[in-house]
UniProtKB/TrEMBL annotation:
Keywords: Hydrolase. The keyword Nucleotide-binding does not apply. This is Kynurenine formamidase. GO terms for biological process: L-tryptophan catabolic process to kynurenine.
């Protein structure tokens, strides 16, 4: 059995987690979500000078920062995140590095296929679009590039276990002109049994097309998702 220390020493560790902080971007910027999704709030509740120890209070939603999301996020009969095994959080991963995408760009199936390595059933698939460079900048949520429906179906057809993207939204109301085809992209992904890891950062630091993903969420009972610490091992 390989020594765990040697296992990690022989690999480059890349942190693909966005940092939680006050004044962080949030889905409260979406129309109608202003009073639904709370902003991240971090405050001091004790100091060494006054209480003899330092402690903080952290207010987050399940979709704060970089998070892992399961089917109950949008499916009435979908699984909560705690129903998924950790085996679905530690996976062989493939990486698609797309050219930098412009605000509100629609990512096509042809573009994905052009830059994709071989993807096997059960893999995690990470997609970099360069949008993570907009982290916490104005428009990070509202101007996010999105996936075309056929592009997401191409991903689902690969039978992946987890999809990780540097996008805040894989769909948006303006994504398609046909009213009948708007929305439901998240439902299709979760109905396949896959988890969603978003938005990841630092994807451009990944130099290889495959590695190992570790995306370990907070251990919270009865929620659709939770903030996560995600790393990629080359």
């Amino acid at each position: 059995m390989e020594n765990p220390i040697s296992f990690f020493k022989n690999r480059k560790i890349i942190d693909i987690t966005g940092e939680l902080e006050n004044n962080l971007w949030g889905y409260y910027s979406l129309p109608g979500m202003e009073k639904v999704v709370p902003p991240v709030e971090i405050s001091t509740v004790a100091t060494v000078e006054n209480q003899g120890f330092f402690a903080s209070k952290i207010l987050v939603s399940t979709i704060s920062g970089t998070y892992l999301e399961a089917g109950s996020h949008v499916l009435t009969k979908g699984n909560n995140l705690d129903r998924h095994s950790l085996n679905q959080c530690i996976l062989p991963a493939k990486v698609i590095q797309l050219p930098n995408q412009k605000p509100k760009a629609l990512i096509s199936v042809d573009l994905l296929a052009q830059f994709a390595p071989e993807i096997n059933p059960g893999d995690a698939l990470l997609i970099g679009t360069g949008w993570d460079h907009q982290w916490n900048k104005p428009g990070f949520v509202l101007d996010s590039p999105n996936l075309e429906r056929k592009a997401l179906q191409w991903i689902i057809d690969k039978k992946i276990a987890l999809l990780g993207v540097d996008l805040t939204c894989i769909e948006a109301s303006w994504s398609e002109d046909d009213e009948e085809t708007k929305g439901s992209l998240l439902s299709s992904l979760f109905e396949s049994g896959a988890l969603l890891l978003a938005p990841i950062v630092n994807v451009r630091s990944i130099s290889q097309k495959e590695g190992i993903l570790l995306a370990l969420p907070m251990k919270v009972k009865g929620t659709s998702g939770a903030p996560v610490r995600a790393i990629f091992l080359e």
